[in-house]
Structure formats: C-alpha cells, structure tokens
User: Fold these one by one.
Assistant:
Number 1:
Amino acid sequence: MSNIPNAVTIAGSDSGGGAGIQADLKSFSANHVYGASVLTALTAQNTQGVTAIHDVPTDFISAQIDAVFSDLEIDAVKIGMLSQIPVIETIASGIQKHNAKNIVFDPVMVATSGDLLLAENAVEAIKKVMMPLADLLTPNLHEAAKLTGEDLATSQDAMVSQAENLLSSGAKAVLIKGGHGDDNKCTDLLADGSEINWFESERIDTKNTHGTGCSLSSAIAANLAKGQTMLEAVGNAKEWLTGAIASSNDLNVGKGSGPVHHFHALW
C-alpha cells in the first residue's frame, strides 16, 4: 500500500467549523489527503460573523511548524488567515527553513460576513514577504483589488490586469476568484505568466457559502500534494467545490451563511 499524501494548513481556526482550519482539514480529507495543521489565530466565529480574534504567539506558531515538518513528509502547504506582521514573518521563515513545496496562499482579508480579518498594515507585509513564496495565490475579487490598490475588477480585462500585477509581485501563479461578481456565472482566472486559463461555472442560488475560499485553496493544495499539475489541481478542485456548494442546502447548519458540504460525494 502506498503512503497517503500529506498536506498542512497554516491558518486561523473557525469555532463554527465552516471556514479556516476546520474547512481546510475537511477539504484535505474529502480529496483523499492526510491533513496536519498549524494554528495562527483563534476566532470566536459562527455562520453569522466574527466576534473576537485571539492571535497565537509567534514562538508557538514556530513550534507547531517545526513539529509538523520534522515528522511528516509534507507534500503541499495551504496558508490562510495571517492577521499580524510578526505572524507573517514567522510563517515565511518557517516554510523557508523546511523547504516547503506546493505552497497555496489564500490571502484571507475579509470574512464572508464582511468582517475584516487582518490589520491594515499587514497588507504590505503580505505582498513583500508571503507572495514571493507562493506557488499559487488565490485572492477573490475584493482581495485582488486590495492587494493591487486598484478598483474592484468588473471585467475580464481588469482581472487579467490585476493578475499580471500580482505576478509581478512575486507569486508564481494567481487564481482570481470571480465568485463575488454580480452576474449569473462564476468566472475564475488562472494566470502563471505564460498562459491564461478561465474556469466558468453556473452561480448556485444558496446562502451557504461560508468557507468557500478556504475550501477551494485547500482542495487545490490537496491535488498538488497528489502530484497533479497546477491546471489539473485547480480544475478538479473547482469541480469538487461546485458540488459542495450545490449540496450545501442538504446541511442545515447555523442561522447565517452556512458551510458548504465538504463530504457531498461520501454522505
């Protein structure tokens, strides 16, 4: 029997279970990869919003990274919520120390509920410290606009322009997610500096979209851990997430924006 691929998520915890570390581990498992975790922050959070954030001390973040990488053969890394500059610098140092590969960075800045999840001065640190380490950067339209300092992209040309801007900041590939657009299709752009690929799916009528960004980036990392190319990893993750969103109404979790159904193919 061959060993199962291993992936690690470095992100914040969602006490409601729909996003963050919890969504990442579910996504790894649903995509047949073993998941480890490094917690960067704890949130008091549910389907209705975030009420408190408690940052994990940087020395403890370092200890978690060392514990995971010294024991497990890590095939991919998903990085999520990074709320403070010292945390960003600590994680960058840790993944460089351990020669981490297949790094998928989801620059989580705003929760589905609209709550800001990072300090304003952390944006520059993300651009200078984390983006050059990323094999794939996965911002949504709002995050891409914030990272580029441009207006929200409302056309495919604007998405291409912002992707090129982000590539010039050091990311090896960029996936700009169009799920926050206002048309009846979700159009995502994958750019790697040499080619551009578009992924289009029908917009699903559901309020249960909590944790979609976390889940997609984790599924991509899982697919990379299994040896898929970036194009394959993104395409397969998109297909899986579309099913998870379409099945989300089968779950009845919380009073607000509920989670997607990570295990729709199994339950």
Number 2:
Amino acid sequence: MGRNAGEDIIAGLDLGSTAIRMVVGQMLEQGGSEGLHILGMVEVPSEGIHKGVITSIEDAVSSTSACLEKIERAVGLPIEHVWVGVNGHHVLTDISQGVVAISHPNGEITEDDVERVVDAARTVATPMNYEILHVIPRYFSVDGGSPVKDPVSMSGVRLEVDTHIIQGSSGHIKNLTKTVYRTGSDIDDLVLSILAASEVVVSERARDMGCVIIDIGGSTTSMIVIEDGDVIHTAFIPIGSEHITQDIAIGLKTSIDVAERLKIFGGTCVTKGLTKRDVMNLSEFGAQADEEISRKLLAQIIEARVEEILEKVGAELKSVGRAGVLPAGAVFVGGGSKLHGLIDLAKRELRLPAALGYPLNITSVTEKINDVSFATAIGLVKWGADIQADMPSGKWHTIMSQLNASKTVATNVRKWMKSLLP
C-alpha cells in the first residue's frame, strides 16, 4: 500500500455525477489515542460522468486533475495515492457461503482458518465481465451451530461463513482506474461509496441496533442497511437530485440553471403551511425576465419526486423485512439530502427516525466537515486510515475480508494498466 509524499496522509476521491470531491486526512495523537484529522476538502464540477459511470474519459480526467491540483494547493503536499469510491447502477450484490475443515489438529480455529473460509465464499461464480469488490462476512458458524461473530479460538471440525458479496462491472472499473491513473495518481484501492460513507456517519451502537444510510446523489440514490454490525442489504435507485431539477424546469417552464438555483435556495419538500399567495420572482434566481411563481407549486413538484425516491427506499427495506423496524432509523448523506424538509418527509414516508449524517469522531479545521456532500470522500479517508492502522479485533474480520477482496481488484487493475504500457 502506497504512501503520499511528505506525510503519512490518506486521500479519498469521490467521483460523482455532479461534482468530484476529494478529502485529505491524517491520523494524529489526540488525548492519548490516535484520531483522524481532516487537513483539506475540495470539490469541482464533474464532467464526463453520468449516473456514476464514466462517459468521457478525457472530460473525467480533466475534472479529476482540477480537483487534485486544488487539494494539493490546499494542503501544500503532492497527492500520489488515493482511495477511490465506486458507485452506480452497475454494482451488484449477492449472498455467498463458504465451508472449510478446521486445519489445526486440536480443532482450534485460527485466523488462517477464517481467511480460508472467506476465500471459499469468494469462489462464487460472478456474472460475465464483473469482478468482486468486497467480501463482507455476515456471520460464522462452527459445526453448523448458532451464528457467531468471531470464531477464532473456538473448537470444532467445520467452519462456515455467510458473506455479502459486492461486485462491480469490469468495464466501469477499468475506465474509473484509467481516469485516476491518467492524472498521475496511484490507487490504493477501490471501495463501494455508500459502504465508505457508512463508516463515518453512524455509531457502533446504531450499527448494532439497525439503520439504513441513504446517499442521494445527482443521478442515483444508493442505500445500505446495517444490523448487528453487519451489512444485510445494499441497493441502487436510478433517481437523484438532478431529476428534481429537471422536474422543476419542466413544471415551471424555466431553464435548468434557474431550476437548480430554485431547488437549492428556494425549494422545500414540505407543502404544509404554504398557500398560493406565497410567491417568488424567478429573476432573483437568474431568470432574464420577471416572473412570479407559486412557492407551493414548487414545493409540490419537489415533494412528488422525493416521495418517489423514498417509496423505492421503503420497497427495498420491505424486501429484506426491515420496513419501519430499524431502531437507529435512516441517515441521509449526499448533496440531494440538503433539501429543506427532507428529514420530516422521510420520517413520515419511511416510518423511521431520520437525520442528516455528519462525521463522528473526526476533527477538522474547516467547516466543510459538516457538509453531507462530503460523507463519501471522508468515509474513504476513514476506510484507508482504519486499514493502515490495522484495526483491532472488534472489526478484524471485516477489515481482513475487505483487504483480501480489494487486493484482488487492485492487483488486477495494476496488471491491466501495465499491460497497456509500451
């Protein structure tokens, strides 16, 4: 695993459909223990990326290079290695089981046995042109007994594991890695974006009780359900905040740019309390001519689309038997989560507690740390910091499996890139 020049710092790169965001952090001594400190956070408009997929490598390289230059100026150090988020409708998830015989003569389970059983689970047949990003153990069992979290030092003759397999399109991964490599940076690893975001916005207690993290991006909405500390479901919905902007532009017969400003600065998901007499002038939002529009009509347009997103989230929760029964509720991240009234609407539609997802136990000198748009990029930094610090036994099996799975992706990518060189 690489290190950035000059300092032992970690960089996270989130290539979104509307913006490319990058965060740089460092593990520092704080009150007798190490903690993650964010050194810099930047974003630039995204080009060449649509619905989480690279559509123009040249444009994507240009935008990514601009973001990289901006963060290097902000932190005063060259960034040579980055942790990169993977997102989009091309990501597939599956459940796989692995079984191995315990190798030690006295039947005691070792970390090597755990690694072997996770590798066995990864032998699942993947769809054509797909490769595995993560193999995340859900639970283990010894000799067919009750599920256990950590089987090391237990005794038996057979070890089984139930895992969550996350796969990405080989073509998209190659385009993504080519984009990053052409900026002059190396890739420490590829991480599922919503999985990275979940690492920083919910506490261990919330992960145990059960929660859903929802990332409303520009073109897509992704979600991950966590219970008993394990990932039990992930899903991707092909609707995002850009669809809200398009609805406003069509409904109010105005330009996309004006519609975007209306959404950000004058929009709300809640129509309660608004009347037809509440109006605003489009000229205040960039329109060339004076034109009054109803605030209530604007709210109705936004509410309809957000309700659709939440209905699809609710359907995914229902598919895994978690609709309305996650005690730690819904946590929202992503640029689309900034919509006024979203939390109130989510509580009503999902029948769950709801809140915006702010980073926990992370320090920074910048106020951007509380911008929910940066949750994925911050999560990527946290992911890299945890792996570099070699997490203690409480999470060792998850981190171990992440390392094993991601080594496969990173190694294949590097071999593929080298094969292109003259």
Number 3:
Amino acid sequence: MSANPQFKRVLLKVSGEALMGEGQYGIDVATVDRIASDVADALALNVEICMVIGGGNIFRGLSGAADGMDRSSADYMGMLATVMNALAMQNALERKGLPTRVLSAIPMQSVCEPYIRRRAMRHMEKGRVVIFAAGTGNPFFTTDTAAALRAVEMNCDALMKGTNVDGVYSADPRKDQSAERFERLTYMDVLSRDLKVMDASAVSLSRENNIPIVVFSIHGAGNLCKVLTGDGAFTIVENE
C-alpha cells in the first residue's frame, strides 16, 4: 500500500458489541477475523497499533449494577470479559502471522502479561500489536477511559474509536432519521452537548493531552486503512 497514513502510532478502541457480528452476545469468529485483517493492512502502512477492546458482548458492568449487583463486582466481571475478547483478538491476529501481546491491568500470568508501561512500549517498538485488557484495573472506569489512558501512556498520535456508525451524530441515526452527522468537533463541543462519543473522563483526558479522537465504522472491510490515510467517512474530535 502506497498511501501515506496521517498517524504513525494509534490506539484502536473496539467495542465488545462490535465482536458479536449479527449475534446477540458472545464472539463471532468471522467478525474478529475481519477486524484482524484490517489491523494487518494498517500495519502494512507502517502504522504502529495498540488496541483496547470492550467487554459489552459478554458482560456489561453498568447493567449488572443496575440489576442490583455491587458496582465494583460488576465492573471487575466486565474487566474479565475484556480479557476474553483480547485473547480472541490475539488468536485472530496471530493466525495472520502478526506478533501480538496481551497486557492485562489485572495480573493473570497464566494467560497474558501484566501491564507494565515500559514493556508495552518495547513491544510496540518491535512492531508487535499490543492489546490492553482489563481496562484500567479499577472499577468505575470504562474501557473508553482505559483507551484514552493507554493512548496517552503509549504516546499515540490518535485514538481511533471503531463503532457501529460512520462518525458522530447528534442522535442515534438508527433511531432518528433527522440526526445530524458531524465531520469535525472540538472536545468542548462533545462535552457541552453531551454527544455520545466516549464518556466525559475519556474525552477530558484526550483533550488535556491533545490526542485527537477519530470515530469511524468498524463494520466495513478496509475502513481502518481508509481513515488512516484520510479517506472514508469519519468524525475527528480535536482542539480548535
């Protein structure tokens, strides 16, 4: 691929729901493989990639807490779900011949490495895809916040958020036909208008460290590379 990418190092945030494919829950292997192919194509552009994957396809802490479960316990269960997703993604990437490491914020040495910033940086410098699991390791923080935190720690040029829609809208476009789509927003636009890009702590962390948030659809083959080279449909959130 000859196109020049806009960013040298990015963090790709994929929601757990994106891994379900057409299913109602769990992991759709074909969908995980397609995302892995997109990551492989992006690496061919000489882009360094690390990833954070949500756990909503297996367990969502907030809904568990809403059903009467202790919020901390529910969030820890959600973190364990992200480890399962990370291992599934690692397996898909390695089947494509890509060197991959899973680093978990909750130590579980039997299945993955503990998160150590310097080790993660070294893996990325060696061209490995690093998948960060178990969120921040703390309850009450979402995987969006974990993604923003890891993007800052890894000195990423951008936070790529792969979602179910091709950018940021004023309302859910699948429910509201009149929803307005945005090409470009500032962090303050997102916060003041309460746009559902990421949670407020993730947006604030990105704003403080001047890391653009690029929102695009993860559901089209090749979308990641198109967005990295400035093509395709996406919304970018950055400072004015």
